[in-house]
């Protein structure tokens, strides 16, 4: 049953919330591929990303919990202070082990675990951000024959994250937000 299932994993930090919002706002409520969002936020920042996305998106925004199952039409948001891993049975597990790249949740951890479960059916998207987190995870997705997309640095609010990813994965696609959204719409329903 899981052969043709796909997963979209999207990561970012500074500027990544706005970029992901613009991409996801264009997707229909019944969008056929689950989307996982790993965003760095300030450790003491209490605002609920889930509420923010719920207000603006047609998709159902859910904060990830241990054992949450993947479903289409949903955007899954990594909770603060946990690494998010994907399991073979297409549920999540949370892990509060050491920071990776000074981050928890780490984009690298989620991207790599997604590629281990979904292989070539993984679409990794790295957005604006002020750290290098995500670049090794995106490279790993690419090595597993998944799709690697980086937000065009010319458009990104902070270029550190996109540039690090472009350097580590020369074969990635470099697209602006509008084209990332258009690409995701082409995957819908296939």
From TrEMBL:
One of its GO terms (biological process) is chemotaxis. CDD domains: CheB. InterPro entries: CheB_C (IPR035909), Sig_transdc_resp-reg_Me-estase (IPR000673). Coiled coil: none annotated. The keyword Hydrolase applies. Keywords: Chemotaxis, Hydrolase. One of its GO terms (molecular function) is protein-glutamate methylesterase activity. Its EC number is 3.1.1.61. This is protein-glutamate methylesterase.
């Amino acid at each position: 049953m899981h052969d043709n299932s796909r997963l979209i994993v999207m990561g970012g930090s500074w500027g990544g919330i706005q970029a992901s919002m613009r991409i996801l706002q264009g997707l229909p409520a019944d969008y056929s591929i689950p989307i996982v969002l790993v965003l760095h936020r300030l450790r003491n920042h209490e605002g609920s990303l889930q509420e923010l996305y719920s207000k603006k998106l047609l998709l159902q925004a859910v904060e990830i919990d241990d054992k949450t199952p993947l479903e289409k039409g949903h955007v899954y948001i990594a909770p603060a202070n946990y690494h998010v891993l994907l399991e073979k049975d297409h549920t999540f597990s949370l892990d509060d082990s050491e920071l990776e790249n000074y981050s928890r949740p780490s984009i690298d951890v989620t991207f790599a675990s997604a590629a281990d479960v979904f292989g070539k059916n993984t679409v990794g998207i790295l957005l604006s951000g002020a750290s290098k987190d995500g670049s090794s995870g995106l490279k790993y997705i690419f090595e597993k024959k998944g799709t690697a997309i980086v937000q065009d640095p010319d458009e990104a609010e902070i270029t550190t994250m996109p540039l690090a990813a472009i350097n580590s994965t020369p074969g990635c696609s470099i697209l602006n937000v509008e084209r990332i959204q258009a690409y995701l719409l082409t995957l819908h329903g296939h």
